[in-house]
Amino acid sequence: MQNDIQEILITEEEIHAKIKELGSKLSAEYEGRNPLVICVLKGAFIFMADLVKSITVPLELDFMAVSSYGASTKSSGVVKIIKDLDASVEGRDVLIVEDIIDSGLTLSHLIELLKSRKANTVRVVTLFDKPARRTVDLQADYTGFVLPDAFVVGYGLDYAEHYRNLPYIGILKPEIYSS
Ligand SMILES: O=P(O)(O)OC[C@H]1O[C@H](OP(=O)(O)OP(=O)(O)O)[C@H](O)[C@@H]1O
Ligand code: HPA
Ligand SMILES: [Mg+2]
């Protein structure tokens, strides 16, 4: 698995330090508001688990599974909901937890959906952002790291369902997906 990585971009230690910072900011923003924190599966599962441990105020969790990449390094453009939320978002302060914003299609779709379901507020925290690849105008409220325009894996992010369990973020060797 490690042999398929061209370069480690962000180490496990750097990721954990950044998540502590994000957790402090979010704890201040959501004091007394009991936010509904939504994990966008599968990619955000590790970030979600680490992030909520760094948030010190009461909150509730829910999970939604959404997919548009499949076994490709480019978005199919079709955002498929594989599992919907269990909770109602009506009147709630919602925090969407994403691993990465790339084209922006997944998030723009989700934000519209949650607004149409009458969430009180919808904010986004993403660990990684790849602004060079955006096809829709969209920015997270909280961002961990800005990445260069390369397909990355690890810390929850996959290529064809592999590499999610790497503890760091690395650039995948192009021969892995072009062969
Ligand atoms: O900004 P975008 O171009 O929409 O890309 C970002 C989304 O793509 C990935 O999900 P994917 O569809 O690969 O599903 P997964 O989380 O199950 O891997 C990633 O986890 C984000 O949710
Ligand atoms: O660079 C990426 N890696 C893995 N999954 C992704 N989904 C959007 N961009 C990426
Ligand atoms: Mg994926």
TrEMBL record:
Subcellular location: Cytoplasm
Biological process annotations from GO: GMP salvage; guanine salvage; hypoxanthine metabolic process; IMP salvage; purine ribonucleoside salvage
Pathway: Purine metabolism; GMP biosynthesis via salvage pathway; GMP from guanine: step 1/1; Purine metabolism; IMP biosynthesis via salvage pathway; IMP from hypoxanthine: step 1/1
A single GO molecular function term of this UniProt record: guanine phosphoribosyltransferase activity
Entry-linked Gene3D superfamilies: 3.40.50.2020
Alphabetical list of InterPro entries matching this protein: HGPRT (IPR050408), Hxn_phspho_trans (IPR005904), PRTase-like (IPR029057), PRTase_dom (IPR000836)
Residue ranges annotated for the Phosphoribosyltransferase domain, each copy included: 13-159
Catalysis: reaction(s): GMP + diphosphate = guanine + 5-phospho-alpha-D-ribose 1-diphosphate; IMP + diphosphate = hypoxanthine + 5-phospho-alpha-D-ribose 1-diphosphate
EC number in record: 2.4.2.8
Main location: cytoplasm
Similarity section: Belongs to the purine/pyrimidine phosphoribosyltransferase family.
One Pfam entry name: Pribosyltran
GO CC entries: cytosol
Known cofactor(s): Mg(2+)
Function: Purine salvage pathway enzyme that catalyzes the transfer of the ribosyl-5-phosphate group from 5-phospho-alpha-D-ribose 1-diphosphate (PRPP) to the N9 position of the 6-oxopurines hypoxanthine and guanine to form the corresponding ribonucleotides IMP (inosine 5'-monophosphate) and GMP (guanosine 5'-monophosphate), with the release of PPi.
Protein name: Hypoxanthine phosphoribosyltransferase
Keyword list, A-Z: Cytoplasm, Glycosyltransferase, Magnesium, Metal-binding, Nucleotide-binding, Purine salvage, Transferase
